[in-house]
Design a protein that fits this description.
Blueprint lengths: L1 H10 L1 H21 L12 E7 L5 H16 L5 E9 L2 E8 L5 H15 L10 E2 L8 E8 L5 H16 L5 E7 L4 E7 L1 H7 L3 H10 L4 E8 L2 E7 L6 H5 L2 E5 L2 E4 H4 E7 L15 E7 L5 H16 L7 E7 H31 L2 H8 L1 H15 L6 H9 L1 H24 L1 H5 L1
Antiparallel strand pairs: 1-3, 1-4, 2-3, 5-13, 5-14, 6-13, 7-12, 8-9, 10-11
Helix pairs in contact: 2-13, 3-4, 5-10, 11-12, 11-14, 11-15, 12-15
Amino acid sequence: MVQKLIELALRNRLIVLIIAGGLFAWGYFSIKQNPIDAIPDLSENQVIVFTEWMGRSPQVMEDQVTYPLVSNLQGIPKIKNIRGTSMFGMSFVYVIFEDNVDVYWARTRVLERLNYAQRLLPQGVTPSLGPDGTGVGHVFWYTIDAKDMDLGEQRALQDWYVKLALQTVPGVAEVASFGGFEKQYQLAVDPVKLQFYKVTLMDVMNSVKANNNDVGGRKFEMSDMAYIIRGLGYVKNKEDLESIAVGNYNGIPVRVKDVATVQMGGDLRLGIFDENGMGEKVGGIVVMRYGENAEKVIDGIKKKMGDVQKGLPKGVSFNVAYDRSSLIEASIENIKGKLIEEIAVVCVIVILFLFHWRSALSIIIQIPITIAVSFILLNAFGVSSNIMSLTGIALAIGVIVDNGIIMSENSYRNLSEWQNDPANKKI
């Protein structure tokens, strides 16, 4: 079989060269298209279901949220395992699928089952899916440098401007904010005043909810003109909250300021973010989408941050806390250097030992073609260019030229035997 293949290749040299050139061109195109990352993604194929029910103990979360979700998600096909975790006010369910399952197909199946499991959860509790990223998807961290702004203003700037802009970058699954204070209006209710005015705490809550809303009206026609009537009721400052009526006392309206103190404060925090011991910082973590090219995503983030910088207040700028592109570039350049060194050493050794440039060229030419074809297979199996895959190619260079050296040596040996055969000399 091998002899026939060799004879067929020798008789059709032009076709073999065209096929080799086509494979090399295809491989070069595959190198350009192959995702680049510093480390291989070995995380499990999972979908995270996150549920928040603040103020509840871990045992309550386990009994009323985690257990019903885990029980109902087990019927999804191609599931390998389901893990549930309950903590104060939060529940996490990790649905592990088989490795060959498409992640977006898995997310669709989980979402369909969540629509059914919703009725088993307490009223007002809604589970949601985590971002379509992986455990190694945190590719970029940044902080906001704003010395003249307090932590609440910095967090508001991050949540309502920077975060929304960076989420539009292709390949970004989520931008998670950290640090600072999430602004909120806080009502410190005085129970003695509630009792005096005969107002309950639920009256205060319902009145505040009802009076923080826009209301639509009907169309009003006048002088051949039509006007749309709507009531503007959204709270804009503390004074609007203080003026909301929560009841009446002897015909006199009782307002929020009569029974409570309204203040602007921050939401409850479970931790702080400190940068190099220099104090608290506000920033974000960019999570890359599953299967994206980390290098392209990071380049897109940097370009978008340049556009966002133009709209920031004076004196506000970005500080990069973690940038994986530097690690990616260093890793790729190191592997490229080793590849070039190995190719050069192999070429020199082959030429020195054979001392015949045509034979050496036939062996050396296998190296770029084989490496290019390997990237075709990397793309086919969804493997990115990372330290592990490129190191494997570097280690295999010696194996790549082995077959050429063996075939050349065997050809030299057969030719030598044929030339030294007395019968052939007579001919």
